[in-house]
Design a protein that fits this description.
- This protein has 388 residues and is α/β, with parallel strands linked by helices.
- Helix content is 39%, strand content 18%.
- The protein contains 15 helices and eleven strands.
- Helix 8 packs parallel to helix 9 and helix 13 runs antiparallel to helix 14.
- The termini are far apart.
């Protein structure tokens, strides 16, 4: 039988003390089995500390994350409600992580990109398909026209929006960068559009190939980095969904995009975004996205496309859509699955809800002019010239 106690039973430091200050009603269970109510109202969660050491877990994202992964801290009930305490955690990025990211950024290569992608996506398809939408299997935000849309309906709306924005027609050639589990190939291929898919994930390439063969769709798939791709002829249009986060060199990316598109060809891009580039937590870099992953900085992406001969046709804020998408993923996530992804999905839901992260889609069209394409020295001169 569990014994109830007051907050005075909690230590004055550590995560337990932090939780005690939350307004969200819940319970803290101490290692001896004593339960301490926190907040006001009917408890919607219980945090269970397995040891005295767990009670004094450092108040950093990395400290709390590691304690949870190790099983020193357990959570029952509404897991997402606990992320209201996130703003009170300190973000302490280890020095070795800073050096590792700098090293990876300098040596960015196809091999390193492939290693980072396989590290995240290398799990079997069944791992992801337990929580992604069942219609197109997108690992990026759906578009919710109504709050009560299903995840499958939101994915359908996403395809409808993309198809219309690119003005796709039967017989056109579309490049899909980072094809995931073949959703773009399935939707566009069934409408007569030839889709060439690029991916760095071997299991993803096999899955997309099966999608093509199953319905005899017009398309092909290559296990290849976009920055290394040289088409026989330019494409009519390009779609890149949730991949820009893995391509932090926007200058090189924009230049390559101009090369693979016909004049008048359009690009439909979407991704998760942050106000500051490289603003990724230490926990995320160690456990979720290794390599040079960084959330998109919209202002920098738009600048490079304007520098490289594109006109921007549309920019849409989809932050709320990504929040709802990750919420649905988190709800579909079973307790039998990995702890790290439980943190990732609920943490992402909270980040989009509080605007710590945003999401956008961008539609840009290639012109016949390559644009000014300023060099690094020229950009530096412009920067210095603009100083007041």
């Amino acid at each position: 039988m569990l014994v109830k106690a007051t907050r005075s039973a909690l230590p004055r430091t550590g995560v337990a003390a932090l939780l005690a200050g939350l307004n969200t009603p819940g319970e803290i269970q101490l290692p001896n089995g004593t339960v301490v109510p926190v907040g006001n109202g009917e408890p919607i969660y219980r945090v269970i500390f397995r040891s005295e050491q767990a009670l004094r877990t450092p108040m950093t994202e990395m400290g709390v994350g590691r304690a949870y992964l190790a099983g020193d801290i357990e959570v029952e009930g509404d897991f997402g409600a606990l992320f209201n305490a996130r703003q009170n955690l300190r973000e302490k990025v280890p020095l070795r992580q800073k050096f590792q990211f700098l090293y990876d950024f300098i040596r960015t290569s196809t091999k390193m990109n492939a290693e980072a992608i396989v590290d995240h996506y290398g799990l079997d398809d069944g791992f992801y398909l337990t929580f992604l939408d069942t219609r197109f299997r997108f690992y990026t935000q759906g578009l919710f026209q109504r709050p009560n849309d299903t995840l499958e309906e939101a994915s359908e709306h996403k395809m409808e929006t993309m198809f219309a924005a690119l003005d796709l027609k039967p017989g056109m050639r579309l490049l899909d960068i980072g094809g995931g589990w073949g959703g773009v190939t399935q939707y566009c291929g069934s409408r007569g559009v030839h889709v060439t898919t690029l991916t760095l994930a071997p299991n993803g390439a096999r899955y997309v190939q099966r999608v093509i063969e199953k319905d005899n769709l017009p398309g092909q798939v290559f296990l290849q980095d976009f920055l290394d791709h040289v088409p026989e002829e330019p494409y009519d249009h390009v779609v890149i969904l949730g991949v820009i986060e893995h391509i932090p060199n926007y200058r090189r990316f924009a230049r390559k995009m101009w090369d693979v598109l016909k004049p008048g060809g359009r690009m439909y891009l979407d991704g998760s975004a942050a106000v500051e580039k490289f603003a990724v937590s230490a926990f995320t870099r160690d456990y979720i996205w290794r390599g040079t992953h960084t959330f998109m900085t919209l202002q920098d992406v738009l600048a490079e496309f304007l520098y490289h001969g594109f006109v921007v046709l549309d920019v849409a804020n989809e932050t709320r859509d990504y929040e709802l998408t990750m919420l649905e993923w988190a709800k579909r996530w079973g307790e039998r699955n990995y702890r790290v992804f439980r943190l990732f999905l609920w943490g992402g839901t909270h980040a989009f809800k509080t605007n710590s992260l945003q999401a956008y889609h961008v539609v840009a069209e290639r012109t016949s002019s390559p644009g000014p394409r300023p060099s690094i020295p020229r950009r530096l001169r412009q920067f210095l010239g603009n100083l007041r």
